[in-house]
Amino acid sequence: MNMENTGISKYTISFGLSLALASVMNALLVVAKEKIPTVMAGLKGLTGHHWVSHGVIILVLFAAFGWMFAQANGGLGPRIPVNRLISLLVSGVAAGVLIICGFYLMGG
Amino acid sequence: MAHVFFGVACLVAAVWIFVDVLHASATNQARIRRMSRAAAVVMWLSFLIGGYWYVCFYNADKNIILKGPWPFAHNVFMETKEHLVIMLLLLVTYLPIAASNNLAANREARQVVLWVSGMIALLALLMEGDGAMIAMGVKVALLPK
């Protein structure tokens, strides 16, 4: 693992960024499937249950983006300060929570 | 309700990790890593058991809730719970990765684990609260009128 730039491994950074992105995408997929019937039907068609498909898609995206980000900079991973990583991580999770809670509190 | 038990175990593990990381040293680093893996395992168990129950059996509860006086127990609490839990799963999966760094020597690595374990504890607590509201939604719907 590369620790020469920030003192934390490239996977900590790449999967941290991926987590922030996947959290927002999770929330956007909630809005999309509740508002667009074809999205809901497509998710149901994938596995038989929209929630199972939803979960699988987000987990696959998390794994895929984490792996892809780790390949940046010739395999050294993204070079960002840890404070920036934490800001993005917390913002992504907070945005996901607020979008989902706000959406259902407003009646879906 | 095995998924509740494993969810609470994840919550306890997250708080344990948070406190242990505040006092991180060479002596407790291995324990922090073990607890991070344990938190991930119990949360995955909770997710799989709860998910199976939700997909196979929740529909009956949902119909009861929607006909009762607390339809928001499903429309708000269950809907948010079933989607926020996916984020909780991402966080616990990430936790062992973050805890694999040298926490004893690296303040920045400790900060990442503190934030992640803190968010896990808060989200797990929210899941427990949501679960309680959903159970109450069923109960009040079954009360004699």
Overview in brief:
By secondary structure, chain A is mostly helical.
Explain this structure to me?
The complex is a heterodimer of chains A (108) and B (145). Helix content of chain A is 80%, strand content 0%. The longest helix of chain A has 26 residues. Chain A has one domain. Chain A is an all-alpha fold. Chain A is flat. Chain A contains 5 helices and no strands. Chain B has 145 residues and is mainly alpha-helical. In chain B, helix 2 runs antiparallel to helix 3 and helix 2 runs parallel beside helix 4. The two termini of chain B are 28 Å apart. Chain B has one domain. Chain B has 4 helices and no strands.
Detail the topology: elements first, then pairings.
The complex is a heterodimer of chains A (108) and B (145).
Chain A: H1 10-35, H2 37-47, H3 50-70, H4 72-75, H5 82-105
Helix pairs in contact in A: 1-2, 1-3, 1-5, 2-3
Chain B: H1 2-22, H2 29-67, H3 72-99, H4 107-142
Top keywords for this entry?
heterodimer, A: mainly alpha, 0% strand, B: 145 residues, mainly alpha, 4 helices, 86% helix
Query: What is the helix tally of chain B?
Result: 4
Structural class of chain B: mainly alpha
Give the DSSP E fraction of chain B (strand runs of 2 or more residues): under 5%
Number of strands of chain B: 0
Q: Tell me, what's the shape of chain A?
A: flat
* SS strand fraction of chain A: under 5%
Q: What's the rounded overall pLDDT mean of chain A?
A: 93
What is the CA-based Rg of chain A, rounded? 16 Å
| Assembly of the depicted chains | heterodimer
Number of domains of chain B: 1
- Quote the distance from N terminus to C terminus of chain B: 28 Å
Distance between the termini of chain A: 43 Å
**Largest binding interface between chains:** A-B, 39 and 31 residues
